Amino acid sequence: METIYTVDTFNALMLVGILIALVAIRQTKSLNKKLSEQKIQDQVREDKLLNGSNRLAH
Amino acid sequence: MKIEFGMYVLPLLLWLGLVYTDTVEAVAKRLIDASQESISELEWRKEFVLHAAFYGTVIAALLGFAHDSIITKLIAALWFAVGLWYSRQLTALISTREEHEDKEHRRKVAGMVRSVVRSELIAFKKTSGKTLN
What we know:
The structure holds 2 protein chains of 2 kinds. Chain A has one helix at 2-57. By secondary structure, chain A is mainly α. Chain B is mainly alpha-helical. In chain B, helix 3 runs antiparallel to helix 4 (70-128). Chain B is elongated. At the A-B interface, helix 1 of A face helix 2, helix 3 and helix 4 of B.
């Protein structure tokens, strides 16, 4: 009987771990998306700066 | 999973959630939130997740086979898949953060070079007395 409870406890702990990991995956994904969007905005800003300095040089 | 087991565990979890709400929230935030972590901390987290994915699966599979429990075998497979998926997400995040930091560093160096050139030009202008365009 005790071993069955051990297996059940282990299952419950693993399920809790899986749930935490799923929430963490979601959070990491949104963080990654936010950083990628920021990267694109930085790129656009750099391109504008580069165009402006090229125009000034000519 | 036995019903009696749920009868003990569910009230316990409910009690923990109600009494230690702040602590539970803080621990969950610390476990889940990776936005404030440095790259080395993220690397450590990735290593930890990968090790947990492999060792957890081995233990769960052994227990599942020893007790002939299909649920434990299924949980082992799910644990492995979720662990690998999470480590993949962490790798992507590390890569993006590294790119970001590299760009930030280059921008700082470029700013420093610009300021050095500007101060050199001003110094030259002062010493030679010529006007620069």
